[in-house]
Write a structure and sequence with these properties.
This protein is an alpha/beta fold. It is 24% helix and 21% strand. It has 23 helices and 35 strands. Strands 16-15-26-25-24-17-18 form a 7-stranded mixed beta sheet, sandwiched between helices. Helix 2 crosses helix 3. The protein is globular. It binds iron/sulfur cluster (2 copies) and FE2/S2 (inorganic) cluster. The site of one iron/sulfur cluster (SF4) has 14 residues, from helix 6 and helix 11.
Length: 846
Amino acid sequence: MAKMVNLTIDGKPVTVPEGTLVVNAAKRVGVDIPVFCYHPKMEPVGMCRMCLVEIGRPVIDRATGQAALEADGALKIQVGPKLETACTTPVSEGMVVLGSTEKAKLGREDILEFLLTSHPLDCPICDKGGECPLQNLTMGFGPGESRYLYDEKMHLAKHVPLGELIYLDRERCIQCGRCVRFQEQVADDPVIGFFQRGRSWQIVTFSEPGFDSYFSGNTTDICPVGALTTTDFRFGARPWELNSAASVCTHCPVGCNLTFNVRREAAAGGKWVVKRAMPRQNEWVNEIWICDKGRFGHHYTESMERVTEPLMRKNGELTPVTWDEALGYVTECFQAASDGLLTLAGGRLSNEDLFNLRQLTAGLGGETALYTSMAGGDLTAQVGLGQGTNFSEMGPETAILVVACDLEEEAPIWWLRVKQAAARGARLIVLNPRPTKTDRSATDVLRYPYGSEAAAVLALLNALSTKRPDLPETGQALARDPVFQSVAKAFAAAQNGVVIFGSEGTSLESSQALAQACANLLIVTDHVGRANNGLLGVWQRANDQGAWDMGFRPIPNLKESMKSASALYIVAADPAGDDPSLAEAADFLVVQDLFLTGTAKLADVVLPVQAFTEREGSFTSGERRVQRFYPAIPESPGSFADFSITAQIGQRLGMNMESRNAASVMAQIALQVPDYAGLSYTKLAEVVEQWPIVGREDLYYGGTSYENRQGIGVQLAPAVQRGASVSLSWIQPAQVGSVQATPAQTGLIAVPVTRLYDRGQMLLPSKILHLRLPEPYVALNPAEAGRLKIEDGATVEVTVTGVVVRVTVRLDEGLPEGIVLTPRSLGIPITGPTPVSLKVVDRVVA
Ligand code: SF4
Ligand code: SF4
Ligand code: FES
């Protein structure tokens, strides 16, 4: 435990751990020491001098080496002759901090006067106006008047695009360096920096495209002035016009907490619209960060392409009908189908939606299926991350194994947090067939051939235990590798161990083998059932884990099951859009979705749903934290949430189902799903004091709406932590063989990978991101491409499972030969490693 230090700040006694900075100690007792360059999530630099205070320290008697005392027995304190920066000075025993003396006040006034010499003071038209630390601190600590003349101010460029997402106003920049340090220290994307000298010092971008980082939007939150703004929001609204609603990002399994700022807008015909998405502080989930997909990727909710009324096929055409007619027909057909009903659901749905879907389907004796190509959610429920897990607390005592995963692409904020854990000393082991950005922070980087991910994990186990099946030759070779052996021993020896598995190059089947191998490794090394230990799946949808918890499972032969069902109820999934070979539907097809997807176009009935911005519900993140989201804007008249539509069908069938209140559905979940026992919307809305204090009243650590008053959620305990016993289970080695092939043997193998920016239905409507969305492409090793006489940028036709797609080729030296790296959701229907053929259409780069 850290040694505690006692000091006083403006007369208030405070006791804090040794090493605490004076500025943070002051915050603990409610004393505001103003800052600009300091940010509690980054290393201090002492650049702006705004935090100047007087500091006194006990006088040491040189003769005795003891603290000297005054006549009255009090410690003799000597105040330093110069002001000191509270953001770079650590506390010390007996220290006396004086932040409100005339000298300190004068120091701050001088700094503010200096900062404002060339500031445009265009607060009335500045996006930060109303939530600006410079504005606030000038009001609180600045001089009443300026001695500088307007004509003497430097006039710099005001609308400088640092890329198409972020704009810079050079006049407003106070050169605090927070944005540059964020990109270097937190995002590990040093794509912006300072240029020039003296008063010409300014922020520039070095990357092409400009400000090329998945985390760029965070700099607009931490910029203490209106210098950095997002293209999405700039000149969009004034902060005081905005209402706030708490939400949760729907794009990946991290479950970042969001605040939506909304207002009624004349341009939208008087409708309520979402003006911006901001991070909401949750130190256990996303701290105060979100990625740009979460920030800019919510526009699908307001797309004009959304289905707004129920449709029924009449004379071969989908035709608008009333809800009564649509639900009546669906009820009739589901009743007729009875146990021939197959309900296929996607991980976009909330827990309440999924629970009701399961109730309805079970009531009819039908079957449910989860639409995913990733398995293992049953294992994360057993040996997942222990309750109380927090990546921010992980350090040298923890080993983190990231396997078959490009973490930054699949779950950006987990990537940030894992990287920071590694920086604090955690042993980060990366096990992946090709280089990814996670390698930069890794302690150990191990490779295996595509298709051998489970064998590679079992090879680690081999070094520790004999309780495993025989491995295929690839696995045996890895097991003989001394590096594998030493890494396995290090993982086993670590006090805490976490395994993160993704879906790099995996299919549903191989993902099951991988998840099981990872669970086995954790069980054998006793890294289960405790906080900061366990298994974490990087799911492909935000609430895949919730779907597993609600009893949904992927089914191996989806195509056959779909064909043989007498009625299909497809909710939040687009199998035919993803893979045209799945287009042969059952006799009766109902699609419930936001959009007229490829599958919806084939349906007999299409039921439109509310977006998550228009309703409430809960999601369960990959870390198995159940979190509430709230309605941000009113629902359109006559529209319903998914759970409500399902319940209305159930009610027509005579079932007792909740159609109005999501909280009541959660109450039923708490009664019927053992892992969710005791949960309620009230419990999910509980908050606790969070550190560091950002946003809230003082606004100088951000100036945005970070405050979390709506709930930090509840992390579920995995079964093993609740006392259940877990046992090892082995997937037979035959199922974990390598798909890696040399061209001479079996030709090319396409392997699926996930990219953050894809061309899926939930991202395409966000036009602001269009320049960042890749055109359909595949990647090849240059030597392989040379053999095939394919140049970088050439156009090829890719044939996967009989479907032909035209894409461009990128060359990537990190790729093994024989492999065609194929991003998911870019138009190529790929669900696992698949033989592929390439036909060159255009060899020459355009
Ligand atoms: S742009 Fe903002 S965050 Fe960056 S240096 Fe200037 S004032 Fe600081
Ligand atoms: S990391 Fe995932 S959950 Fe968080 S903002 Fe990005 S896409 Fe959303
Ligand atoms: S020098 Fe302390 S906040 Fe800038």
